[in-house]
DNA sequence: GAACCGTGGGG
DNA sequence: TCCCCAAGGTT
């Protein structure tokens, strides 16, 4: 078995040296061998953005953040609303709140130096088990064992693990830790994730190109697509609400009225257009006249649907031009619609605004 | 442990 | 169209 492990490490790393992806935040093996070190700030930023997010989706945000805030001190000193607006569209907005809090903790509490030990990393907001190991490996090239969804897929196939996720996680962690290469931890961590992303894909994996083909129990059995086995998922309920878009100005000068959502919960800390609560019983909604934030000439502008992680939202959108005689509701302010059509708004709110344009 | 928390791409 | 999925963390 130990011979197998050595062979697997060496095959995976040889494949990665040849076929691994070049990514903006990644130090390639030849760069690492030449003594070039990764920037822990850049690695951390990329890891937070990549949580539950694809590389193509995160990449432009990564470039934007590094350009706006090149160091952890710059990010720590940025107004939080600027950080939230820059994150808009990436989703899971607790990541952005934690990102800002983590930057402040590192900048002000740790003199701008990211910890390299697991305990120190885990203590920072937004850094959990996976991310601590990933930063330790990719940024510091220290021994670690990353277990993300890619690694879970690879490991359950290699060992043909029948237990469903998430209960199989402890077994997966053990197997992954046993395989991890202590001599090239940074390259190994990124190699096994690349393997999952490029070769060992959820559907139609490219087993013929896999450096671990002969070591893979599922491949030998021919049932690799059965893994990982997952627990059944719950149905998504539908929730209904009314959104109100107050606008002023026209064309490129048009603005809409927004407010900031409370910190906790869905879209916490993000901008929204005024609206009702979101309820499962559409019949329980108030009338638009009762619910409107201002007494204006409302017209129904249409409806939008947006699917969140655990429910589907259907908003009826009402629109009205602002009446200069009216006074703004508490906490409300105007934002321009033009720059990239309601940039800075989360997607559901962007859809509501666009229903009016 | 389970619920909560976004979004967009691919089959 | 619908369903699956992603470099997870927090409570």
TrEMBL record:
Give one Pfam hit by family name.
NUDIX_4
Mind telling me what this protein is named?
Answer: Adenine DNA glycosylase
According to UniProt, the reaction catalysed is: Hydrolyzes free adenine bases from 7,8-dihydro-8-oxoguanine:adenine mismatched double-stranded DNA, leaving an apurinic site
Q: Which InterPro entries match?
A: A/G_AdeGlyc_MutY, DNA_glycosylase, Endonuclease3_FeS-loop_motif, HhH-GPD_domain, HhH_base_excis_C, HhH_motif, MIG/MutY, MutY_C
Q: Does the keyword Cytoplasm apply?
A: no
- The EC number of this protein is 3.2.2.31
Q: Name one GO biological process term.
A: base-excision repair
- Top EC category: hydrolase
Explain the purpose of this protein. Adenine glycosylase active on G-A mispairs. MutY also corrects error-prone DNA synthesis past GO lesions which are due to the oxidatively damaged form of guanine: 7,8-dihydro-8-oxoguanine (8-oxo-dGTP).
GO MF terms, alphabetically ordered: 4 iron, 4 sulfur cluster binding; 8-oxo-7,8-dihydroguanine DNA N-glycosylase activity; adenine/guanine mispair binding; metal ion binding; oxidized purine DNA binding; purine-specific mismatch base pair DNA N-glycosylase activity
Species lineage? Bacteria, Pseudomonadati, Pseudomonadota, Alphaproteobacteria, Maricaulales
Cofactor: how and how many bound: Binds 1 [4Fe-4S] cluster.
Q: What cofactor does this protein call for?
A: [4Fe-4S] cluster
Q: Which family would the database say this protein is a member of?
A: Belongs to the Nth/MutY family.
What is the organism field in this record?
A: Glycocaulis alkaliphilus
Keywords, comma-separated and alphabetical: 4Fe-4S, DNA damage, DNA repair, Glycosidase, Hydrolase, Iron, Iron-sulfur, Metal-binding
